[in-house]
Amino acid sequence: MGKFPYFTDVHEEIREIARGAGEEFKKTAEEADRNHDYKIIEKNMKRLAELNLIGIHIPTEYGGEGLDLVGHFVALEEIAKGCLSTAFSFNTQRLAMDGIRLGGTEEQKKKYLTAACGGSILSFATTEPEAGSDVASMKTTAVKDGDAWVLNGSKHYITNGIFADAHVLFARTDDIDGKKAFTGFIVEGDNPGIKISKVENKMGATASPTTEYFIENCRVPDDAVLGVVGQGMPLALSALEIARIGIGTQGLGLMQVAMEQAIAYAKERVQFGRPIIKNQAIQFHIANMTSRVEIAKNLLFHAAWLKDQGLPAAKEAAIAKVFATEECTWVCNMSMNVLCGPGYTTDYPVERFFRDAKVLEMGGGTSEIMRIIISREEVGRV
User: Does domain 9-121 correspond to CATH entry 1.10.540.10?
Assistant: First the structure.
């Protein structure tokens, strides 16, 4: 097979480092999942910073490696193979960093991006009880008070919220020309106005903390504003577009390890006097899984390459996200079918892969929202 067109020698070097980290995280992935052990994920995030993997696409003047998004997603794919919970928190870190990278002042970039590359953890908060897919329905408000802002409201389903050193969050500010306007803010993790109220008990990615918090008279200085007042929505959506590629890339990593587990089992499991891998039905399953992996890989890294070139990629990111995540669930399910009874037990990690896969279809925009984006982008180009 020829060299994949989007990868350079530098990307392969990143892959080797990230693969080693993924193998390291794999050793504690089952324990982290079983015990919902957020401390393991927090430790893993610090380890990624030590390996200079957190800031792959962040400019060197802010503590990063100054490379590209393709390089970041190469690393993310390998981390997802080892521990999906770590990959999920890692991708959220990049989402928040992109919000700052795309909209922050020079001072904000130097302070928060440098710290994040060095191991501090960020969260990204748009979702609220009444504002999921309909982000514009968020009720959290920010009111100017002298040289400060006062925020009130709530956020939920916020990854990394419980151990975040800073939160990138969005709130409604004064309407502009009669239309809702939103603004981004960077809020320190120890701000007394942020009160963690709940850590969700999830089906999968259980060790990546998903929190709900109340925002009560949370005062932040004027220099906490991220980007332009009233222009928070375009900023959030720009960062989320990149995050969708990342969520799909996690699916790519996860479906590969699920398929590898199925193949390894099928080679060892003997029925009717021969390994079941010799059964044509099993071979067809492997062929279908392989096809889905290869298609997802091409879609995802094509979308990442477009973003690196500064080209429009809303449609491509949505296509890659919806395909990779839905097919990840399919591959994990099929892998369980190959293992049959053992695959349904905790003796094998396939059941964890299956549970982990589902969240990828929802995070960063549901499959239904992705299809709306794809349709709108295509119709708009006709």
Answer: yes
